[in-house]
Amino acid sequence: MTSPTGYDGNWLPSDADPRFDGKPVGELATYRDYLRNYRLTLELKCADLTPEQLATRSVPPSTLSLLGLVRHMARVEHSWFQRALQRNLDEPRPYSGSDEPDIEFGQAVGTQECVDEAFDSWKREIARAEDWLHAQSDASMGDEVVYNSDGETTTVRDILVHMVEEYARHCGHADLLRECIDGRTGQ
């Protein structure tokens, strides 16, 4: 296997990379910029792979795969943006309805149908999150929200920082998963 190492340590040539440093102005714009870039990074790490490759598991007994990460992030987007921030508690959660722990990973199988459903779900949740974020302002970052059934509260800011952290951690997983699949590396 060849080891494509990217372009001077980057995933793509700089003129072809959709991620950018938009030099955001303000707190909310900064969160949105980071989220956009990490979402694109996960998508790029999954690009040009077959369904079987996307469903390739990391190291037994782990169920971690790129496809599982996409499904997981659809669930995470829904949990924080729909359930916690907007209190849409009656909506069914993506990848629920089973007692299987980590169902989003365990049931990620290498079929085109599973891949299409995962990416559709993830992109739908991102669009819904972006719609909500578009209506926010820097002033709302300190707003308190109830984020769980125990009535615990946190701020909008804390949830958005958590989302950036969640993507950053999982993009690190995606880096390693992709390198194991075809040797491709880069930011």
TrEMBL record:
<feature type="region of interest" description="Disordered">
    <location>
        <begin position="1"/>
        <end position="23"/>
    </location>
</feature>
<dbReference type="InterPro" id="IPR034660">
    <property type="entry name" value="DinB/YfiT-like"/>
</dbReference>
<protein>
    <recommendedName>
        <fullName>DinB family protein</fullName>
    </recommendedName>
</protein>
<dbReference type="Pfam" id="PF04978">
    <property type="entry name" value="MST"/>
</dbReference>
<dbReference type="InterPro" id="IPR007061">
    <property type="entry name" value="MST-like"/>
</dbReference>
